[in-house]
Design a protein that fits this description.
alpha/beta, Rossmann fold, 6-stranded mixed beta sheet, 4-stranded antiparallel beta sheet
Amino acid sequence: MLKTFKKGGIHPPENKLSAGNPIQEMELPKVVYIPVSQHIGAPSTPLVKKGDKVKAGQLISKSSGFVSANIHSSVSGTVAKVDTIPDSFGYPKQGIVINVEGDEWEETIDRSPDLVRECSLTGPEIVQKIQDAGIVGMGGATFPTHVKLVPPRGMKAEMLLINGSECEPYLTSDHRLMLEKTEEVLVGTTLLMRAMGVEKALIGIENNKPDAISLMKEKARGYKGIEVVPLKGKYPQGGEKQLINAATGREVPSGALPISVGCVVSNVGSAFAVYEAVQKNKPLFERVVTVTGKSLEKPCNLKARIGTQVAELVAFAGGLPEDTGKVISGGPMMGKAVASLEVPVTKGTSGVLIMPEKEAGRGEHLVCIRCSRCVSVCPMGLEPYLLMTLAEKKIFDRLETERVMDCIECGSCSYTCPSNRPLLDYIRFGKANVGAIIRARKN
């Protein structure tokens, strides 16, 4: 019997339109727009100025704290300006604009396609290389990877979980990485294990990817301590706490981190980036992005340089369909709609979804009929209808008591509501305010 998490969950249509399409490499853009904050934590500090010449892989913005991440140039060329630019969702953020001139990489980067399995580095040395390379969680959360690998005092990691579930509808970039870069992902997994000082790793893959399960299982036999765990398809299995529960049976307590039950979770894309950083000296400056949609001419998986505008990816996929109603950065459940295609690919850009107009609109908001569907599907065991009401009435002390900060913002409640209630919108509003209250209390 296939494993899955116990609480809640939904089964939206998968729509994996690009699953059978191999990764294609985007041609270089003429200009890149690189935000200095592409991660959870403090923004990085620019090291370059207008007129500076840079190479691909060169450090151009340095992390400004432990919970922060380095940013590297994705191209070679001349810095046009260091100024306010749109981030991946269109919000104005500080960034670096570079005019592209050729494709010269830092000499220390190994550009050969040869697999490198052996590594003589110690755990702390691997963590340092990961930090230097600016690697973050590439499933969308963008938490700096090196921070995860250094557990808080008094806590110890027992196992690593690699998230290959890719439960978000439409997205297929992780699926293609597991098929096309299988051994690189496995070597990256062993490097993460050494960095953590653990001897066990579980790779969770949902059963809608039988080809990836089969191939990863076959190749994993050559890697000590790595086990591939097939999972029953259910959203949001890609959430850290849900994956841990599905693969190990352990349950992360309310308000606690995965390390509290001895687990560290990393995305398939992050494992691949770790391989490239440690074995090839390549910082994180490009990633695979799924560009997809039912009306799109050529749904695809594209390897794009960080800073490439989404408009160029959409053009590669055949252009914006006439019936487009919404463009989403990410997947349909947890992604965010963008107002313009003039936004850049960042480290956390897992997909670009073009939704047709007939599917993009929201239904009329009706009164709650007390059906409790939102409660039954919540993977965190919360009461979304109550959280929405409390947020709407700004009763923030009660919201905190009702564990609003445990919400992972998966959208299962809104998806299943027959009254089209904007549950998640209000819960996000409530979380933002409760979070601010908690931070103020600590200061």
